[in-house]
Design goal:
Blueprint: H1 7-24, H2 28-35, H3 40-57, H4 66-87, H5 92-125, H6 128-138, H7 144-151, H8 155-170
């Protein structure tokens, strides 16, 4: 038959063990908070909150054995760090990542704008005989037969001019 455990006596042992653990290494919860990602400036507050939570819940601890107590207080420190992280607004690092991402978008937009400007300049440099069929084909999306009718050319002549215009644009390094 198992021996009955004296609950008040076990609670007293658990409180003493907790006091002893915290007194033996006062920076333990601070270091643990930092290892869990709490900023060093907030680590003292996190450690105090974890110690307070542990003190309030020590009566619910089933065993005051050192291993059990260490695991238990580690869980409390982890939950405290998580709670702190959830309450905190986005960190400077997260905001900086957004800025960097936005800067990359701006860089891409600038590059795209430069390439588009160069393409437009290259199109303007085409002779009217090559530029007009190309624009009717690409911008207006007209078929070769309709372009031929508009420009009073044969369908083959339209296809040939569009092909020459595209070759001329490929010669531009920025397009």
């Amino acid at each position: 038959m198992p021996a009955l455990v004296d609950a008040p006596l076990e609670r007293t042992r658990a409180r003493r063990a907790l006091e002893s653990m915290l007194a033996a290494d006062p920076q333990r919860l601070r270091r643990r908070s930092i290892s869990l990602g709490v900023h060093p400036d907030e680590a003292d507050d996190a450690a105090q909150t974890a110690a307070l939570r542990a003190w309030r819940a020590v009566d619910s601890l089933e065993s005051s054995e050192p291993g059990t107590m260490c695991s238990w207080i580690d869980v409390i420190a982890r939950r405290t760090a998580i709670d702190l992280a959830r309450r905190r607004p986005p960190s400077d690092g997260e905001v900086e990542c957004e800025r960097l991402r936005a800067a990359q978008d701006v860089e891409r937009e600038v590059e795209l704008h430069a390439r588009l400007s160069e393409a437009l300049r290259a199109i303007r440099e085409l002779t009217p005989e090559l530029r007009e069929p190309l624009l009717l084909s690409v911008v207006d999306e007209l078929p070769a037969a309709e372009i031929a009718a508009r420009l009073d050319l044969s369908t083959d002549a339209v296809r040939q001019r569009i092909s020459r215009a595209r070759k001329a644009l490929r010669r531009h390094p920025q397009v």
